[in-house]
Amino acid sequence: MRDLLLGSSPKDFDIATNAHPEEVDALFRNARMIGRRFRLVHVRFGREIIEVATFRAPPGSSGASAEHALQKESGRILRDNVYGSMEEDAERRDFTVNGLYYNIRDFSVVDYWGGLEDLSLGVLRLIGDPAQRYREDPVRMLRAVRFVAKLGFRLAPETESPIGGLASLLADVPPARLYEEVLKLFMNGQALSTFESLRHYELFGYLFPETDKVLNGADGEFYKCFIQHALRNTDTRIKEEKHVTPAFLFAALLWPARQKHLEKWNCEKQTEVEAMHEAAAKTLTAQIAAVSLPKRFSLPMREIWMMQPRLLRNSGQRAMRLVQHKRFRAAYDFLLLRNQAGEKDLDELAQWWTSFQELNENEQGTEARNNRNPRRRKKSTSKHSDDKPS
Question: Which residue spans within the chain are E strands per DSSP?
Fold first, then answer.
């Protein structure tokens, strides 16, 4: 309802009913019950999957039991399967603008919490006591940031004020769930403004703890500029309906942490390749303790990193082989991103690879042969100018 009333096309529709999941499942042949924390029914119609939820009541309502509702001492809801009425279901929704119902019986909009007024005012407001609602589900703080960026709304003062004091509750959220939230935060076309808001409310550190430490350190402004360029490019690609992969997104967001680990390289004890592998491993180990990252994305991410120094060696057959590598385009785009963010000693190299790709195969062979000596960059006083640690 929210998106329709704002004049945009909804990505999907949430269907709520007083029928219990077992009853919905029995009605449709192509139905499947899912979830434990929040039981739903997926009904398949061709290629479409319709998600059907039963009206819920607050966990503390009469009839609630440990089997159907469970909360931790912190207040976080672990299980939420206490069924109730439409009005009780509205009370459970997070924000007033998400608590609107379209009744197909009489084609009316049902609004129990002033969502229509908040829509007209451009205000995002939590239903109920904000501190309690954040404790029930700390992810609501991330959702607040996401919806403000997506809708261009502002947070109601009472919704905004508890966030700083409750941000640490995110540490109790399963990493797998936070991974899904990170994708929603940064792949919705508003990644840059979302990043700024996460930093403002001190939430970013619970999603990317090692990167956050770097951003708060001596080199913070340099790496902040890099991330801003990456997220600006991501937003542009999404608006142009181009493909965006989580591997590239995480490669950019974790690059500052990886570089800091690489700075500790001892050339007398390790080769450069060994140091890069170790830096990547340490970065990933720390990250997945906070936000998980599936291997189908973490492996390409590491390849993008590992190819950065290989792009420096652009002579002879090396250049021909690199262009054929399945990660070349992503690695090349990453190199351009580094250049755009301030690594000016990459100007010549970035231009060479750009021009090289515009040649046909025969011309590429000639250019690669003519470029026999590895392209060495001038020594720079900036420790950010080289992929090697200083």
Answer: 15-17, 31-34, 40-45, 48-54, 69-71, 77-80, 100-103, 108-111, 123-124, 154-155
Residue 177: burial class (beta carbons within 10 Å; 0-12, 13-18, 19+)? middle
- Can you tell me the distance from the alpha carbon of 232 to that of 192, in angstroms, rounded to the nearest whole number? 6
Residue 309 resides in a domain: yes
CB atoms within 10 A of CB 33: 13
Active-site residue set: 12, 14, 94
Quote the tokens at residue 372.
Answer: 């026999």
Closest CA to 146 of 101, 178, 111, 103: 178
pTM: 0.84
pLDDT digits (tens, 9 = 90+) for 370-388: 665 444 444 343 445 455 5
What are the structure tokens assigned to 268, written together?
A: 């007398």
Whether 290 and 209 have beta carbons less than 8 Å apart is answered as yes
**Domain presence at residue 306:** yes
Residue range(s) defining the domain that contains residue 297: 174-390
Q: Exposure string (b/e) for 226-244, b if CB count within 10 Å is 16 or more? A: bbebbbebbbebbeeeeeb
Q: What is d(CA 26, CA 11) in angstroms, rounded to the nearest whole number?
A: 27
pLDDT given for residue 389 in this prediction: 46
Structural domain contains residue 160: no
244 belongs to a structural domain: yes
Kindly report the CATH number assigned to the domain that includes residue 200. Answer: 1.10.3090.10
- 38 contacts: CB under 8 Å, gap ≥ 6: 53, 80, 81
Give residue for tokens 């790496």.
223
Q: pLDDT (tens digit, 9 = 90+) per residue, 302-315?
A: 999 999 999 988 76
Number of domains in the chain: 1
Decide if pLDDT at 326 tops 70: yes
SS3 154: strand
